[in-house]
Amino acid sequence: MIHDNVVDKSKDITILELLDRVLNKGVILTGDIVISVADIDLVYLGVKLMLSSVETMEQLKSGK
């Protein structure tokens, strides 16, 4: 059973279905990367990445 934003965990999902969902709805990935030497943090990167189709991005920008 698939709700609007929730996928039933008992259902097998193919890569094609996952890719279709990402392109139609979009997905946001966030994370932190820290590069350190001898327990001294040298570089910190905060990463936010949004993946979607161009059409989905245009719809989001226009508010439709």
Give structural notes.
It is a single chain. The chain has 64 residues and is an alpha+beta fold. It has one domain (15-62). The chain has 2 helices and 2 strands. The chain has helices spanning 15-25, 54-62, and strands at 27-37, 40-51. Strands 1-2 form a two-stranded antiparallel ribbon. A hairpin with a 2-residue loop joins strand 1 (27-37) and strand 2 (40-51).
Topology:
Elements (H helix, E strand, L loop, with lengths): L14 H11 L1 E11 L2 E12 L2 H9 L2
Antiparallel strand pairs: 1-2
In short:
It is built from 2 helices and 2 strands; from the N terminus they run H-E-E-H. A hairpin with a 2-residue loop joins strand 1 and strand 2.
